[in-house]
Each structure stands twice: as C-alpha cells, then as structure tokens.
Amino acid sequence: EDKYPYFLAVKFEYDQFELILVNVYIPPSTSQYYNSEYWMCLEVILEDIAILHPQSIVVLLGDLNARLGPSLHDFAQKKGIPGEFFESHLQWLSRDCKSNAAGLLLVSLIFKGNLQILGGKDKNYIYPYTHHSTNSSSVLDLFCVSRDKADLFSEVTVHLSDSSDHRPISVTL
User: Which of 133, 71, 57 is nearest to 103 (CA)?
Assistant: First the structure.
C-alpha cells in the first residue's frame, strides 16, 4: 500500500536546465483520507530535493487545502513566523478571507524550503479564487517555486472552467 498516494515528483532535464515538479494533493483535515504526516513527508521530500539537486528549479503545486487569508504577511506575522520570512518573501494577496491550520503548515514549508508563492508581477495583484463550491469560494490551489528562480516565471493565470470545482492554473517558464 502506498503510504502517500497524493504526491508525485517528476524531474525534467533539458540542456543545463533541471526542473523538479512536485504535484501534491493534501485532503482537508476533516477528510477520512487526511494523514497528519503528509506535511512532514512533503517537507522531507523538499529537503531531499534541495540536497540531491541543489541547482534545480523546484515547483510545488497542487490542491493543498491550505488557506492563507487575504494577506500572506499578515497571516505569517499573526502566527509567529520569523522576521526573515518577511524580508525574503514577496507580499502575496488573495481574495480568500479565511485561513486555516494547513495555511500555517504551508507558510512554514515555504519558509524552510526557500520557496515563493507565485502571484502577479504587480505587487498589488490579488490572487483570485481557485475553488468554488455551492456556498463558498476559496484559494486552495497554489504554485510555489524556488525563491531564487521565481523571476523566470511569468505571473500566474487562473482560468475559468466548468469541468471541475477547481480552476486550472497556468504559468509560463
């Protein structure tokens, strides 16, 4: 039995270029499929990638069920994330007004993993909703990249879609 069925890591190589894509689904904490070890496992995966592939561009994306509220910096500050986080991570704004425990785990992960959540190139860009249900909307689907390689990516585009309750997200490298 696969202990972590919701993780997929793929390495792409072209010339001197190496990109490691880590696609993740972490079920909501209320789901019978949720495992509290998922976040720790993801942290270990990212640490291993950093050690084994230090020059790679790391892309972490997927449905993390992590809600960060309207301001990443405000959320991190309220939760006691160290000050270095604010100095090294760009402000990130979203339409989502709620935050959750998974959001704190994600902020800790991007801080430890030297990642950055991609948004718009405009500092006032507000990340749109990525998930819609019958009575609510939220930002659950995120695109995080190696902080020192973030400038290689264009801004994130969240597309309209009727085929799922989650909207497709694209970015250009």
Answer: 71
Find all residues with CB under 8 Å of 38, minimum gap 6, and list them: 4, 6, 7, 26
What single string gives the DSSP state of each residue in 37-57? THHHHHHHHHHHHHHH-TTSE
Domain range enclosing 39: 7-170
Q: What is the pLDDT of residues 9-24, one digit of tens each?
A: 999 999 888 999 999 9
Q: What is the pLDDT of residues 76-130, one digit of tens each?
A: 777 777 777 777 777 788 899 899 999 989 988 988 899 998 876 667 778 888 8
The helix (run of H) or strand (run of E) holding residue 116 is strand 115-117
CATH number at residue 91: 3.60.10.10
Query: Please, which residues bridge with residue 86 across strands?
Result: none
Domain presence at residue 2: no
